[in-house]
Amino acid sequence: MSYSGEYQKKLVTPEEAVRVVKSGDWVDYGAFAGQVVALDKALAARKEELFDVKIRAVTALRAPEVVKADPEAKHFIYNNWHFSGIDRKLHDKGLCYHIPLLYHELPGYYRRFADVDVAMLPVTPIDEHGFFNFGPQVSHAKATCEKSKVIILEVNPNIPRCLGGKEESIHISQVDYIVESNWTLPQIPSGAPTEIESKIASYIMPELEDGSCIQLGIGGMPNAVGQMIAQSDLNNLGLHSEMFTESMVDMVESGRVTGANKTTDRYKIAYTFAFGTQKTYNFLNNNPMCAIYPVDYVNDPFIIAQNEKVISINNCIEVDLTGQVCSESSGTRQISGTGGQFDFAFGSYRSKGGKSFIAMESTFKKGDELRSRIKPSLTPGAIVTTHRAIVHYLVTEYGIVNLKGKSTWERAEALISIAHPNVREDLIKEAENLGIWRRSNK
Ligand SMILES: CC(=O)SCCNC(=O)CCNC(=O)[C@H](O)C(C)(C)COP(=O)(O)OP(=O)(O)OC[C@H]1O[C@@H](n2cnc3c(N)ncnc32)[C@H](O)[C@@H]1OP(=O)(O)O
Ligand SMILES: CCCC(=O)O
């Protein structure tokens, strides 16, 4: 069946499409590398006619035009589920609001609570069956469309077609308007791991075994582990990861990954979003080894736990001496979000033989000052991303410790043992003040 008649009927210019937006509307922009560009520009151009239009997005990889056009946020209110560097800088200026989430719950927030007046989503060109593919960000796309009064697709031939899974595409019959565009996908290289990141990764590597099922987060340290895995002699690894990361391409191409030992999605790589460089987008395009799913499947701790030997590796900002982990704020300054950290820390520990790792450099440089990330108490205002009872292993360049089952004084002892040597004495004094240091401690 040909859909060209219906396609032509729904095809409009971006300027025509955004006329549907009214003052007071909630408008969804997509997520990660898949956020609308032509529609954003056209909506920004309507600034003077619109007030209180609320935008939702996830991890912007380019600054939204609606925000640039409205530096006092009188017309557009920009909200974001998980900050990128761009979002947090907008937030610092009062131009972006955070929406807290547990990532595996996000489609449910849409289906149960969120108002969506207009959903704008980038997609691949239509296929012979009348479907548009959401590309490498299935996440909550279908739930957004289910809830939206109006659906506008921004078709772009540069978007890779990501095979699913489920909920990876939308049929033309469900769409109101189509616009066409041709922007290049954001290119986000991982960067080579630093010496410290490689040292941290070297503590995690012995914990992996043949058949482990791996999740990696974003950042230099998970990337360092990915690179080491690619160069290892581990066999039959599986991948079940919220984010498909650039180093996973190397892990597959070096023959480490078969997925043969997986319980769910056997032989496949399950993920819910990806961004990186063209190497990643090319790898994902039409690749039957990969299955993209909505996040309420990939990040559901009970789905994660069905695989055996799940290994999850993520980063944090700071940790207190009892093991409370903050990965999303610096005091009250929102840095990113909870994202899927809790989902994978919880799910991987539930898996038979599973282990979750939260890694960090022991110090953080603020100007010329070197500050410990291991602190007596979290910085006032800091958000607890991963509850101390959920935290399993914590790793720095000074070692690796397990906190599960440990009392507060054992936790303090373990954490001080992996803190920077220059701060250990001070931390011991603080632990004494907090009543979590025993005379028997070293
Ligand atoms: C996509 C995935 O990761 S899936 C994995 C599951 N999700 C998560 O784990 C979500 C929570 N985690 C995260 O958001 C990230 O892993 C982070 C923020 C902890 C680390 O991310 P990275 O990109 O490696 O952080 P990076 O070192 O670039 O620092 C990010 C910002 O935090 C600031 N920051 C980092 N550590 C500290 C600290 N100890 N104190 C104060 N500020 C800090 C940095 O200055 C930077 O801010 P800036 O851009 O204004 O300079
Ligand atoms: C939107 C979630 C991204 C992350 O988990 O870091």
From TrEMBL:
GO: which molecular function terms? acetate CoA-transferase activity
Metabolic or biological pathway: Lipid metabolism; butanoate metabolism
| Family designation | Belongs to the acetyl-CoA hydrolase/transferase family.
- Catalytic activity entry: butanoate + acetyl-CoA = butanoyl-CoA + acetate
Query: Under what name is this protein listed?
Result: Probable butyrate:acetyl-CoA coenzyme A-transferase
Organism, as annotated: Desulfitobacterium metallireducens DSM 15288
Q: Which SUPFAM superfamilies match?
A: NagB/RpiA/CoA transferase-like
Top-level taxon in the UniProt lineage: Bacteria
Identify the residues that the record assigns to the Acetyl-CoA hydrolase/transferase N-terminal domain, covering every copy: 5-182
Report the function annotation for this chain.
Coenzyme A-transferase that converts butyrate to butyryl-CoA.
Record-listed CoA binding positions:
217-221, 317, 340
A Pfam family cross-referenced in the UniProt record is AcetylCoA_hydro
Which terms are listed as keywords in the entry?
Cytoplasm, Fatty acid metabolism, Lipid metabolism, Transferase
Q: Keyword Cytoplasm: yes or no?
A: yes
EC identifiers of the protein = 2.8.3.-
Q: Where is the Acetyl-CoA hydrolase/transferase C-terminal domain?
A: 276-431
